[in-house]
Specification:
globular, alpha/beta, 8 strands, 18% strand, Rossmann fold, eight-stranded mixed sheet
Length: 277
C-alpha cells in the first residue's frame, strides 16, 4: 500500500512541476514580493505576498493553495500563477501548509486551520501593507483545489472569502471510482484521518456546499486521469440547483493539470475575481 501511495504522490508532484513551468499569460503591471512570512508555529506555515504596483485597499486579493497530492508539493509550484495574477492587478498570497500525516496527527481539519491562520495573519498585516481586510478570493489546483473549495464551504464562517476557484479538483471523496487510481484510497484515508462514510462526506466540498455557499469557478480537463471531470460537473450542478453563482470551464482533451491550459485558466480566473468586488 505504501508503495502505491508513493507512486501516486510522485505523479501528482510531477504534475505540479509541469504547472510551474507553464507559459504565463501576457501581463503588464509591475510587482514586488514579501517572502516567507510566518503565519503559524510550524515550519510549513509560511506565505509569500505579491503586491501589484500602486495597490490599495480596494485592490482584489487572492490566496492560492498549491497541489501535490495533499502530502507533498510546495508554493513554489504556483509562482508563475502568482506572478501572472499580480501583474494583472491582483494581490496574491501564495501559502504553504502542513502535510496530512498519520504520524503527526495532521489531517484535513488541521490544514483548514492553517488556511484560517493565514487569513487571520492577513488581517493583521492589512494596515501595514495597505490592502483589503475582506472580500478575499481563494484559488487552488488539484488537491489544493479540494482544499480551497472545502475551506470556502466548510470553514469560511466569517465570510472573509467571497469567491473560490478550483482547477482540476476532487469534490467528492466518497466516489468509489477514485479507488481505481493506484494509491488513491490509502492517500484519502490519510487526508481524512477517519474511514467512516460520514467523515469522508465532511471532507468533501460536494457535501458541504449549501445555499450559503459563495460564487464558484471550476476548471477541469476532460481527460483528467487522477480526478475525473465529473467531480466538478456534479459540484457545479448542485451549486446551480441552489442558485449559487457558478461556472464550469471544461478543458477539452486535457489531462490532469495540462500546462497548455494555463493562459486560459489565468485569464478566466482574473476576470472572475475582478467581476464582483
Amino acid at each position: 500500500m505504501e508503495r502505491k501511495i508513493n507512486i501516486l504522490i510522485h505523479l501528482l508532484f510531477i504534475s505540479g512541476i509541469l504547472l510551474f513551468s507553464c507559459k504565463k499569460a501576457e501581463t503588464t503591471i509591475a510587482f514586488s514580493v514579501v517572502r516567507e512570512i510566518s503565519y503559524g508555529p510550524d515550519i510549513r506555515n509560511k506565505m509569500d505576498i505579491y503586491f501589484c504596483e500602486n495597490h490599495n485597499k480596494n485592490t482584489p486579493l487572492v490566496i492560492i493553495i498549491h497541489g501535490g497530492g495533499w502530502v507533498t508539493g510546495d508554493k513554489s509550484s504556483l509562482v508563475s500563477f502568482a506572478e501572472s495574477f499580480t501583474k494583472n492587478g491582483i494581490i496574491t498570497v501564495n501559502i504553504n501548509y502542513r502535510y496530512p500525516s498519520n504520524y503527526k496527527s495532521v489531517h484535513y481539519k488541521e490544514v483548514m486551520e492553517d488556511i484560517g491562520a493565514a487569513t487571520s495573519k492577513l488581517l493583521n498585516l492589512a494596515d501595514e501593507y495597505h490592502f483589503r481586510k475582506a472580500g478575499f478570493s481563494i484559488f487552488g489546483h488539484s488537491s489544493g483545489g479540494h482544499l480551497s473549495l472545502l475551506y470556502a464551504y466548510r470553514n469560511n464562517k466569517s465570510m472573509l472569502v467571497k469567491k473560490v476557484i478550483a482547477y482540476d479538483p476532487v469534490t467528492d471523496l466518497t466516489d468509489t471510482t477514485l479507488a481505481s487510481v493506484q494509491g488513491m484510497e490509502g492517500l484519502i484515508q490519510v487526508v481524512v484521518g477517519d474511514s467512516s462514510i460520514n467523515a469522508y462526506r465532511d471532507a468533501s466540498p460536494f457535501y458541504r456546499a449549501d445555499s450559503a455557499s459563495i460564487p464558484t469557478l471550476c476548471f477541469h480537463g476532460t481527460l483528467d486521469e487522477i480526478f475525473p471531470y465529473q467531480q466538478s460537473v456534479k459540484l457545479i450542478q448542485k451549486l446551480d440547483s441552489l442558485d449559487i453563482p457558478c461556472k464550469l470551464i471544461l478543458l477539452e482533451n486535457s489531462s490532469h493539470l495540462n500546462n497548455n491550459d494555463s493562459s486560459l485558466v489565468i485569464s478566466e480566473t482574473t476576470a472572475f475575481i475582478k467581476e464582483l468586488r
